[in-house]
Structure formats: structure tokens, C-alpha cells
């Protein structure tokens, strides 16, 4: 999946929250599949965790910027 921070910054806060929810669900699915031996790419869950971190970072940036503008 590998999301760019630049692409994330163009999204709204609501879209970021939805992306975060989807990414967290994918982590759960990937880790479950890895434990069962169905997932071949063992690094997938690490990539997904990094994507979640990117989403959360941009989401926090947007929240801080909205507070500063008030």
C-alpha cells in the first residue's frame, strides 16, 4: 500500500480518519494471516504500521493547524 505523506496532506480530516480505520483493519488481517501461515510477505504488517504512523502524523498536524487558526 505505502502511502505518501504528500498525498495524505491533500485529504480532509474525515478522509484521514477513514483511511486510519481501514489501515488498522488491514494490520489486523495481515497479522492474523501471518500467524496462520497464509501470508507470504512477513514484512507487510510492518509496512502497514508505518502507513498508520504516517496517517496519524498528518492527522495530528491538521488538528494542530486548525487550533492555531482559531
Description:
By secondary structure, the chain is an all-alpha fold. The chain has a single domain (5-69), classed as Helix Hairpins, CATH 1.10.287. Helices cover 79% and strands 0% of the residues. The chain has helices at 5-9, 13-36, 44-69. Helix 2 (13-36) runs antiparallel to helix 3. The longest helix is centred in the C-terminal third of the chain and has 26 residues, at 44-69. The mean pLDDT is 89.
Quick summary of this structure?
The protein is mainly alpha-helical. It has helices spanning 5-9, 13-36, 44-69. The mean pLDDT is 89.
List low-pLDDT spans. none
The proportion of strand residues reads under 5%
Q: Which range best describes the helical content: under 10%, 10-25%, 25-40%, 40-55%, 55-70% or over 70%?
A: over 70%
Count of domains? 1
Please state the structural category: mainly alpha
Under the CATH scheme, the architecture is Orthogonal Bundle
Mean pLDDT: 89
Tally of helical runs: 3
* Count of strand segments: 0
**What fold name goes in the CATH topology slot?**
Helix Hairpins
Shape: elongated
Distance between the termini: 35 Å
Q: In this structure, how is the largest beta sheet organized?
A: none
Order of secondary-structure elements: HHH
How large, in whole angstroms, is the Cα Rg? 14 Å
Supply the CATH class. Mainly Alpha
Key terms for this structure?
single chain, 70 residues, mainly alpha, Helix Hairpins, 79% helix, ribonucleoprotein, structural constituent of ribosome, Ribosomal_uL29, Ribosomal_uL29_sf, ribosomal protein
